[in-house]
From TrEMBL:
Residues 2-257 form the NmrA-like domain. It comes from the Bacteria. It holds the Pfam family NmrA. CDD domains: TMR_SDR_a. This is NmrA-like domain-containing protein.
Length: 284
């Protein structure tokens, strides 16, 4: 049986790390993108790229040709993510492609009624007889670069509604290493792995690290939800972003993700990276 793996979300933050580590392991895989030409340019000619879009079922058949496993990653900032991913999961089930490694999120099951999509997908993987592995990473260390670059470099702030809660920020390279290991080894069937970095830190701690690394004073104003919502509106963000992000950050402010796991090291043999080291790579 072929061991070819389809990597969805391959051009994104986690996906690029998964591709890097699968390549290092000499695994057989192909990557999915809505813009295959652009992706092929980015990754080079030694990586196979296929056109794929969750909302376009006509792209599914070609994408899974010869594939026996799927790395499944849903795009961020989509309240409708469960609806977006369902048709592809139904298609995989019908094709009897049951080995799926899914990226959920740490604390997804503690979100209450607001952001339920990861839990709905996890439940579907279980109920429909998939041979799943669910990875539940903590907040990414790279969020500071990817989502807060201007706040940090131009305004001297890191601006989220995380209160005084703590979280084990994780390096996406470690998520990629875990995913590539799970995809290329046995013993991970029907497992759920919560993935964190090595230390619990608050946003105040992160601001102190950012100040050290950038050599400028970076402040965490610890805004209220009202202040944050107002600031995003003034900056022209679409209306749905503030409630989405405040729900996500309530996991930290409500102390629902203030724990560490040793799954990165147990699965990969590598100690997870410190936030400080990621910030040095991203901001120095
Ligand atoms: N940020 C965090 O702290 C955090 C923590 C835990 C879990 N997560 C979860 O991680 C996921 C996001 O991962 P990420 O940050 O790596 O995402 P990302 O960098 O935004 O990349 C998203 C990827 O999805 C692909 N994509 C977007 N829309 C698509 C569509 N309609 N059909 C097919 N592919 C599509 C894009 O590829 P193309 O443009 O090439 O098609 C891109 O490669 C979310 O599910 C989020 O809940 C995030």
């Amino acid at each position: 049986m072929s061991e070819k793996i389809l990597i969805t979300g391959a051009t994104g933050t986690i996906g690029k790390a998964v591709v890097k580590h699968l390549k290092a392991k000499n695994a057989s895989f192909l990557i999915a993108s809505r813009n295959p030409e652009e992706a092929a340019e980015k990754f080079g000619s030694d990586i196979n790229v296929v056109k794929f879009e969750f909302e376009d079922i006509s792209t599914f058949e070609n994408a899974v040709d010869g594939v026996s496993k799927v790395f499944l990653l849903g795009p961020p900032l989509r309240y409708d993510l469960a609806d977006v991913l369902m048709p592809f999961l139904d298609f995989l089930k019908a094709k009897n492609i049951l080995e799926v490694v899914y990226i959920s999120a740490l604390g997804a099951e503690k979100m209450g009624d607001t952001l339920t999509f990861h839990t709905i997908i996890e439940e579907k993987l279980k109920a429909d007889g998939f041979d799943y592995t669910i990875l539940k990473p903590s907040f990414f260390s790279q969020n500071f670069k990817n989502y807060e670059w201007e706040n940090i470099t131009q305004r001297g702030i890191t601006y989220v509604t995380a209160g005084e809660g703590k979280v084990g920020f994780i390096d996406v390279d470690d998520i990629g290493l875990v995913a590539s290991t799970v995809l290329t080894s046995t013993g991970h069937s029907k497992k759920i792995y919560e993935l964190t970095g090595p230390e619990l830190l608050s946003y105040q701690d992160a601001a102190t690290l950012l100040s050290e690394v950038t050599g400028k004073q970076i402040v965490y104003p610890n805004p209220s939800i009202e202040e944050y919502t107002k600031a995003l509106k003034a900056a022209g963000a679409p209306d749905f972003i503030a409630p989405y992000m405040t729900s996500v950050y309530s996991l930290i402010s409500d102390h629902k993700v203030n724990f560490l796991t040793n799954n990165v090291e147990t699965i990969t043999g590598k100690k997870p990276s410190l936030l400080r080291d990621v910030l040095i790579a991203d901001f120095k």
